[in-house]
Write a structure and sequence with these properties.
The protein is built from 12 helices and 9 strands. It has about 290 residues and is α/β, with parallel strands linked by helices. The model has no long low-confidence stretch (mean pLDDT about 80).
Length: about 290
Amino acid sequence: RRTNVMDRLPGELLLYILSHLNFKDKLQCNLVSLEWHHRLKRTMLYQALLFRNPYRLRQAVEFFKETSFRESVHRLDMSLCELPVASFMNLSLVFPRLKHLHIADFDPKFKAPRRSLEAEAAILNSFEKSVQRWKYLEGIVERSGSYPVIMSFLKSPNPVYLTSINITYNKRHGSIGKYHNNLRSLIKLTRNAPYLEQFCARFTFVSLLDFEELQENCPKLHTISITTHVCDSTTDLDKWFDNEDDFDCFMPYHRANIGGVSVEKTAQSLRHLKIKLAKSFMSVRETEMTLLTI
């Protein structure tokens, strides 16, 4: 019986060679033999999934829910899809070995029926538990929305293995105070991500105190990229707060950027720092200026 040279290769070497093919070529290889068909489907054919409309995403969820191929999916990009929060909470069961997630505001509240505070709190609690079922996540890219994926994941009772966080705050609603409160909450939770290497945040306010806390929480951090708001004066700040308490809470962070902070420990692992200044987050096309790159 004649055998193909490729069939005599060790399985790991064959998969390494096939991994360099594009998706179309992998589909062609899928037709070579039954053995190749099973190997490709169980390992790399569905490693990375990108969905541009919710209908295709729902079809994929139904397909992978009934197959053993779901454990081969390592990367999911659904940043262009809207999905009810109840459906999203099933994704960690459908794709249990996900390593990279790219997501936007998948369940806009303005399209959802109005819920009571108790119902919303119960949904958020279930949402957090569903996100924490992902045990292999290494990177999350999120455009913030009604349900915070990164923060929910970082609330896990055990340390997580995230190496990359990339978050864009919704610039169309909120204030400087809200931007900064969200970021401060996120930075506090990074204590649960000791392996974090890259941190990117856009359309928020960042102070030197935040940088110090982030570096203390994540000693392996080597890349920071920030798009931060410019606060020209306290008169400018008065326009961005609803009450005096929020303003008073914010001022120490604002003063830290003006007067500086004392550094107790230098950032030994930091290799790349990029800071952009944006005059306004409320316009569709904001003006950005790169302030510092190292």
